[in-house]
Amino acid sequence: DVKVTQSSRYLVKRTGEKVFLECVQDMDHENMFWYRQDPGLGLRLIYFSYDVKMKEKGDIPEGYSVSREKKERFSLILESASTNQTSMYLCASTKQATPEQYFGPGTRLTVT
Amino acid sequence: QKEVEQNSGPLSVPEGAIASLNCTYSDRVSQSFFWYRQYSGKSPELIMSIYSNGDKEDGRFTAQLNKASQYVSLLIRDSQPSDSATYLCAFNQAGTALIFGKGTTLSVSS
């Protein structure tokens, strides 16, 4: 079974803090994705990566950056957290040329 | 703008009935279609994928795809209270990320 793990299930941070969300997959998947999910807005793609050190902007990249130094790990960085970044953050991965995405358990981030 | 439209619901069905969930998509060249189930507070779980026109059955679930009408549906037979969740429809073109609908909430009453 594909296993995607995320570093925290719940996180509370203060406005202006730098926040790191970590995602690790153990299935040698090339593609990794970061989404946020908000009520009424659905899943929105923030960034994705097709390979180590590669990154592509999704639909809402503003206020976020990513890092992929190793194939199994994809990090989402909030440079200066703001209250409007309070959300559920979901990581997903998929094998090259296969579109089925498998999600991690999610991190519910609250910025106060 | 690629979009997926789903009725947000809630869709309420009695236990044992057939639940029918529908989805339309905007992109005629889409190749792959997916249904995810998401329980409250949990992450989405892939339950069905379908690539060609027609029906695909897996246990109590049947996915139906009509590319000419840009329509995909999910039927759940013998609905159980444990099927109560939000169902997300998604599609993609080759080499791109998935486009998700906002989901339909299903409630199965015992």
Main beta sheet strand tally, sense and closure of chain A: 7 strands, mixed
Helix residue percentage of chain B: under 10%
Most extensive interface: pair and counts? A-B, 18 and 17 residues
- Please work out how many helical segments of chain B DSSP would assign: 0
- Distance from N terminus to C terminus of chain B (CA atoms, Å) equals 40 Å
- Average predicted local confidence, pLDDT of chain B: 91
Main structural class of chain B: mainly beta
Oligomer: heterodimer
**Overall residue-averaged pLDDT value of chain A:** 94
The count of strands of chain B amounts to 11
Spans of chain A with pLDDT under 50 lasting ≥5 residues?
Answer: none
**Secondary-structure element pattern of chain A, one letter each:** EEEEEEEEEEE
Count of extended strands of chain A: 11
Radius of gyration of chain B: 13 Å
Distance between the termini of chain A: 37 Å
Low-confidence region ranges of chain B: none
